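Moderator note: this is an archived Q&A kept for reference. The question asked for a predicted structure of one protein chain; the sequence and the answer are reproduced below.
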Amino acid sequence: MQSKIKSRFNLTYAKLSAIGFIIIIIIGAILLSLPISSKSGEVTPFINALFTATSATTVTGLVVYDTYSHFSPFGQSVILVLIQIGGLGFMIIATMFLLVLRKKIGIRERSFLKESVNTIHIGGVVRLAKHILVGTILLEGIGTIILSIKFSSEMGVKAGIFNGVFHSVSAFNNAGFDLMGRYEAYSSLTKYSSDTVVNITIMTLIVIGGIGFVVWEDIYKNKHRFQKYQLHSKIVLFTTALLIICSAIAFYVLERNNLLADTGVKETILSSFFQAITPRTAGFNTMDTASLSEGSKLLTMILMIIGGSSGSTAGGIKTTTFIITILSVISLVRHSNDLNIFGRRLEDNILKRAYSIITIYITGAFIGMLFISLIQPELALSDIAFEVLSATGTVGMSTGITRQLNVLSRFIVIILMFCGRIGSLAVVMAVAENKNNVIVKNPLEKIVIG
């Protein structure tokens, strides 16, 4: 099916991915705008339904309505499905249906699937897709059981199970949507800031979902034998651990005289680690984001830019891109032409791709900030920057201005969330694909840099 479409319309994976997500978002927006999707039984304005559908499909978590207070169980279920599709990627979902229907998966479908999960080799990609589906069901299932037991004691069995499923899927896919409006609107997980079970379960799901499918496969095959992991997996695991530990310490230092001033030791530790993990595209919060110190907000924005890992449910420039830029600085300082890590040398053109991703990402974010500042000058620039980076990194954290955005500003955020999920570089490649490859090179000439 996909091969016929591709041959007829000459679709690249970037274009197919963009079109696929647009279709899913529009269907979701139509469903969410229906009276059956709201608790009041009224039609939800389409721009707000589109915003919510985009936020769910791009696993961002920015909301213009409190999910529990505004949406009916049907609407909440639509959001849940959109999160799952958006987190796994529609190509994996499509592969699942092809496998169920026992349809042949051709070379082009495998090629699309390879790009969807960001794996290096096309061989074994269908097996990897199966493992991803099984792993997702297993991990979300474990999270659901733990959270359902916890929530059922407070909400009743039926509501507890639904909340367990919803928050497990939302956490694993790094979506950040919650149903805690039953206690206080837009409160996220602040009620559970000192709850060990909820914190550890949500944090574990976020981290596992954010390290990437390829890393899962590596861990599954090689278990604890770290030396046998692929270089990609080693970089991801090392960088993820380093960012979590360093960021948790930094948040404690920055908030010890602010939000953590009157908390106990357990809550301080849990809050510091949660705040270190959630900005890397999860979107939940156990502390009031608007009340964070300026230093903590800056650190949060830096983590939102970095994001999770390639081929995962997370957004941002990705951990591998981040570590490559650090390696390039080290290489330049040492007057070395190579990028070396874990006893391996990286390919020469990877730095060009990394800097292209960062440049497009930052440029898009600044353009978004500029336009929203022009449209709504009454909003503080720091809040706009936080909102834009949260949207571009598909994070979902906000200082509270999402509901203050007008229609035009909301549309800008919708575009940013979409580009953040598809990948800024992929979007540019889809729009500006050039088939006329230039064989003859221009004359070489040096310029001064720095």
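Archived answer notes: Residues 1-8 have pLDDT under 50 and may be disordered.
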